[in-house]
Amino acid sequence: MKNETSILKQVYSPNPDLSSIFRINFRSFKINFKKNSSPTAVLVLFGTFVLLITGALLVYNLQSDFEALHNDRVNSFWGLSFLILTISLFVFYASVFLYNLYLYLVYKPIESVADELLPTCTVIVPAYNEGKLVWNTLISLAESDYPKHKLQLLAIDDGSKDDTWYWMQEAKLRLGDRLSIYQQPKNQGKRHALDRGFKMGTGEIFVTVDSDSIVKVDTLRNLVSPFITNEDCGAVAGNVQVLNNQKAILPKMLNVSFVMSFEFMRSAESSLGSVLCTPGAAAAYRKSAVLECLPEWINQTFMGKPSDIGEDRAMTNMILKQGYKVLFQKNALVLTNVPEEYTGLYKMFIRWGRSNVRENIMMAKYVFKNFRNGAKFGTRLLFLNQSIKIIMAIPFLLLMVFLILTHPILVISSTLLGILIFSSFPVLFYARRYSILESFWAYTYSIFYTFSLFWILPYAIFTANKSGWLTRGLSQQE
């Protein structure tokens, strides 16, 4: 926390050296574990390995019990059916993983184009109850290495009840004509704030940035360069990493999860031109593509109710539907704050889960049609992979509850062994790119998610029609 605070103080000093500051900031992912980890963090990691090793030892010592359970399954119709289904799903997911691994290996980010080739760009920052965080965001954007005469910066206060508007005004005082600030007459939701920005934007490219995020100095130019090199590009996803990863245990775990989600999964999706979601933390859109779907997007409904969540996934879906490619830029880095407590985390995941359910239904309406030129197999495979996870979420939850009630030791021990095996890939992936010791949080996150967040997707499916941001009242003060 001390390291992060000192960096932010440098960033917002009167004459910051942004290039050196962000080099320090992003190098901080390779922190020295002993110096920066609290006793609680050390204890949690130690407990993680105790659990995993205990699970592995139990599986080894209970081989006879596992064989008996296996024989019972094989000798019953339902047990055999489940075994066949499990093996089939394992083969499918393993094949998809290997395919994604190949796509990741062939992925390469687009290098920034020269200043004279960069397009005019409108950056839109919607904010609600973010306090000083919005000031941090706006200053980092203004200090970007992007031609100032090509950059329009808009900030929109969505009816905040705290001092967000005050900090927008402070940023306006510092930046002058480079920043335009607006207030919504009342809180209408992030989608409406973005809609206002889209309608006022004059740039060829729209960039949306969350008001609790900090961009690297070259993020904007790297984010928009694919639009110049690829005329079929309709949207670009930024590379999101965790800003507050030294403040609490949950951000430490999420930091490793985000790296896996973005730098591996979105790299693979980008090789297919089919990134399924451009993140709210930092994303870019071709203006013509946005304006084409803007009426549908702002008036989108689900089961008769206005959609006030999942605006990023919805926009991505509608741009893919137009036949555009959606890419990922690993070199367009943005640091964002994530929940530090369980309540904020599960509410964020519920919102994401509901959005995924809704948008997968929408995607099903066009993905098997001739929605764009060129190969579409990879895009359809991505859709099927996500859809099967949604379809099987409730049956597997019920089955796992039944097995835990009937064979608790066998189920828990085999689950821990599975986590030890399958989470080793994200551990190795993160360790290779950043820090070996920090990578071990992938194991902790898998245990945490498996045993405390397993209910999220089934609950999101049952409540997919519900509206509400859920976390908007959980403002993060700095």
TrEMBL record:
| Annotated keywords | Cell membrane, Glycosyltransferase, Membrane, Transferase, Transmembrane, Transmembrane helix
Q: Does the keyword Transmembrane helix apply?
A: yes
Tell me the Gene Ontology biological-process terms attached to this UniProt entry.
extracellular matrix assembly; hyaluronan biosynthetic process
| GO cellular component term of the entry, any | plasma membrane
Membrane-crossing residue ranges in chain numbering? 40-60, 80-102, 381-403, 409-430, 442-462
Where it sits in the cell: the answer is: Cell membrane
Q: Which InterPro entries match?
A: Nucleotide-diphossugar_trans
Coiled coil segments of this chain: none
GO molecular function terms attached to this record = hyaluronan synthase activity
* Family matches, as PANTHER family: HYALURONAN SYNTHASE, MANNURONAN SYNTHASE
What's this protein's name?
Answer: Glycosyltransferase family 2 protein
Q: Which organism is it from?
A: Flavobacterium petrolei
Taxonomic placement: Bacteria, Pseudomonadati, Bacteroidota, Flavobacteriia, Flavobacteriales
